[in-house]
Amino acid sequence: MRKNPVERREEIVAAAARLVSERGFNGISLKDVADEVGMSQPGLLHYIGTKEGLLSMLVTDSYDTSGTPDDFLQSGLPGSDPETPSFPAYLRFLVRHNASRRMMVQMYTILQTESLNPDHPLHEYFSNRPDSVWDHYSRFPWRIPPQMGSWDEGMRPVVRQCIEAMDGIQLRWLRKPPIDMYDEWLAFERMIFPSPMWDLYR
């Protein structure tokens, strides 16, 4: 039975993510991806345009579009009130989400490491990531302790530390022996959002 475009895109993303997570972006070819999904290279190019287009499909169209603050605000979970959402609660939501998509996290980690090379097509994306994450999170009315001042005044270094801690925890989680990513995050959460100041804002 012929697959519709949405099914084909999902199939391409899954196959490419698996290949990149194993070999890196520089270690795969479009033929590898086409063979993995049983397509011709021209057929694959119809969906991705170029090899760089495949990266866009993997990162900006897939990885970056799930586990978002908007997803959290629609979840109904504790702390997800759209009027006064809890930032630590959102991060716990994000950690749980990432723990459920190991292959995508491994792919993202591999790409982040490869992008240290200035010639990598995602070099600028990852170089700008702290600023882009900050800008995105700043769109939401997070409830924070008054001691922090306003979001813009006090939270930028905290957001940076959260990104750094999460990147490190995910890398350790991908290694053996395994750790529980959520439990590990909770240990860092207590340091980044210390008691008693954050007790009512978690």
TrEMBL record:
The HTH tetR-type domain, residue ranges: 6-66
Pfam family, one: TetR_N
Annotation: DNA-binding region: 29-48
Keyword annotations from UniProtKB, A to Z: DNA-binding, Transcription, Transcription regulation
Gene3D superfamilies: Tetracycline Repressor, domain 2 (1.10.357.10)
PROSITE patterns with a match to the protein in the record: HTH_TETR_2 (PS50977)
Family annotation (InterPro entries): Homeodomain-like_sf (IPR009057), HTH-type_TetR-like_transc_reg (IPR050109), HTH_TetR (IPR001647)
GO molecular-function terms, A-Z: DNA-binding transcription factor activity; transcription cis-regulatory region binding
Protein name in UniProt: AcrR family transcriptional regulator
